[in-house]
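Task card 7
Instruction: Convert sequence to structure tokens.
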Amino acid sequence: MANSSSEHVPLLNTSAKAHRAEILENPLRTYLLGIIISICGNVLISISLNIQKYAHVRQAQRGSKPYYTSVMWWCGVTLMGVGELGNFAAYGFAPASLIAPLGCVSVIASAIISVVFLKETVRPSDIVGGTLAITGTYLLVTFAPHTSTHITAHLVQYYAVSWHFLLYLFIEVLAFCILLYLYKRRNVKHIVIVMLLVALLASLTVISVKAVSGMITESIKGQLQLIYPIFYVMLVIMVASCAFQIKFLNQAMKMFDATEVVPINFVFFTASAIVAGIVFYQEFEGLALLNIFMFLFGCLLSFLGVFLIARNRPKIKQQDRNFIAMDRIPEFYLSCRARKSSRAFKRLHLQKLLSPTENSA
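Output:
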């Protein structure tokens, strides 16, 4: 019996070590899976945007049917949906403070695709901005929190009633009400005001998206989380915040140029997502000071790179109503001459009718 018990002890120790190794490896594997899904999703989004742009250009050249009748445009919309679904899934595997800054991958890929396929010109600022954004992305992936927390309904409930999140939520609601008052009542139509409204909504979107995605991931793994009310609360917050975020973004695109909206929205959205991940999910807890500094430095490089890529893009100018095209000048000139000749002939005919004595003489 002693020998048999002594033989079982090494087996138990071996299985315990294997289980411990699995626990240590799974967070890193899950973390890398979230990064890969997010990068693939952002690349698909950039491809879809360029496909839609190409469809708009082709339909404008033909001028026959509206853009939504184009099969190519619908292919672009479908790819965008798949890319956004990939970003949604990535929040269930990796920290929110990492997934949000990886949005710069979409800007880099869109610039490359537009140059290769849409034959847009390459500027020195594009090369410098792409280099800075890629360097910043590398620093983000390297020094971001490598922990992967299993998001369950009980954990979300615990985070939602913590005092630091309630304080953060109070400050955010107060700031949102002040900005909305300035925007609606005082008619302050500044781009910073509008983009801050979008950013404050984006922080709630990031929190709710990670909660919903994490609970769905755990349910797929076998731990059902969809029976808890907090799942549906987060789902409603996610849908509502996304809807109002899109509303304010559309208003910003109407009032300001895309070259201003894109970089400012990326910076504000990323900053709000990082703060939301730190406050709600406590993603920087236990992270070394060097990692925090290098992570923020990577964010700064990504911000600068996106700004350089997006700035001074060619604008589509509306044609002036009083503008006459060069190829229409001869036709316009001849029509004016014809009108003048017709008026002169009428005046001469009227003079002859009014002076019959001169005609008889």
